[in-house]
Write a sequence for this structure.
């Protein structure tokens, strides 16, 4: 089976839902088992149950601030409805978390690609700059996204601007070949801004639809990080004036609170416009998606829920919450 046959043959809605359910299994089971113990022998949601729920959400890496907002919402609902049975708690939790996320910036689009990936009025390619520390799955995410774009008929150029590690260039080259994308690279240690310039120049000359720029994954001090990313931006704008159209931060969901810290540091260093949260399969820390989305007010565009090339999913907050807390979106 060819790489693109994966996308063509699957019933994407059902298959992606099943993959999401499977990928969040550990997080879901951890939350369910703890809630079951918290409500054992109780008939209604009372202060003791809410205290237990608060601890459960914090240990699921939802984050303290977001957890407190969720608890406040449930307390208000208990006060309004006077009596809520503990058998309703999962449904209530799902409803309130979904409502909370609905107040964050829109995390979904009408496109099943996550972004519209449209050329600008001058016919320039859509430019996506991807940032994140080493080890979070940044290059893999770029490769999976390139495959998804190519399967949708988009012409994709990848820029290997993470010149700090030779392995990063080699890894991106493998992904470019698998995805049918064109790779633009220089030698290890080359100026990242120069690679970005070459990538956009080549993509523009070829009339490509999308250019994705991989950047170095070092969390050096904020000033150096800011200077490097600003230089890449400025050089790209010599080719495509509006570039980059999006700056996507990739975070490793399995690291829990470390992901919060990385989001904080990168947000301080550059303007982040979207998030991809990877490695949610096999971890009980799936709640981190809720906390990061709500606290940083940055849309989550993609989540990674498996090793497969098609396991990078466009984030659907209602489907995600339903999979995490039980029940399915209609």
């Amino acid at each position: 089976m060819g790489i693109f046959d994966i996308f063509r043959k699957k019933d994407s809605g059902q298959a992606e839902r099943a993959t999401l359910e499977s990928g969040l299994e550990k997080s879901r089971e951890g939350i369910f088992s703890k809630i079951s113990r918290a409500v054992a022998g109780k008939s209604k949601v009372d202060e003791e149950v809410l205290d237990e729920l608060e601890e459960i959400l914090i240990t699921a890496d939802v984050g303290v601030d977001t957890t407190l907002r969720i608890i406040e919402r449930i307390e208000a609902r208990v006060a309004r409805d006077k009596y809520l049975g503990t058998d309703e708690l999962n449904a209530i939790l799902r409803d309130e978390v979904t409502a909370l996320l609905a107040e964050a910036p829109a995390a979904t689009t009408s496109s099943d690609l996550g972004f519209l990936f449209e050329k600008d009025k001058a016919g320039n390619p859509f430019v996506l700059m991807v940032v994140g520390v080493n080890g979070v799955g940044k290059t893999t995410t770029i490769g999976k996204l390139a495959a998804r774009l190519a399967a949708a008929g988009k012409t994709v150029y990848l820029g290997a601007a993470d010149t700090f590690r030779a392995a990063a260039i080699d890894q991106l080259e493998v992904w470019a070949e698998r995805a049918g994308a064109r790779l633009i690279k220089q030698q290890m240690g080359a100026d990242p801004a120069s690679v970005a310039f070459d990538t956009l120049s080549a993509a523009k000359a070829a009339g490509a639809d999308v250019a994705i720029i991989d950047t170095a994954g070092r969390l050096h001090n904020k000033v150096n990080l800011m200077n490097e990313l600003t230089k890449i931006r400025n050089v790209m704008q010599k080719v495509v004036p509006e570039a980059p159209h999006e700056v996507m931060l990739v975070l490793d969901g399995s690291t829990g609170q470390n992901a919060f810290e990385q989001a904080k540091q990168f947000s301080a260093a550059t303007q982040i416009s979207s998030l991809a949260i990877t490695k949610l399969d096999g971890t009980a820390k799936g709640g981190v998606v809720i906390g990061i989305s709500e606290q940083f007010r940055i849309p989550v565009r993609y989540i990674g829920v498996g090793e497969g090339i098609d396991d990078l999913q466009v984030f659907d907050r209602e489907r995600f919450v339903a999979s995490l807390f039980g029940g399915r979106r209609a």
Q: What stands out?
A: The longest strand covers residues 246-252. The two ends are 32 Å apart (CA to CA). Residues 64-81 form the longest helix (18 residues). Residues 1-10 have pLDDT under 50 and may be disordered.
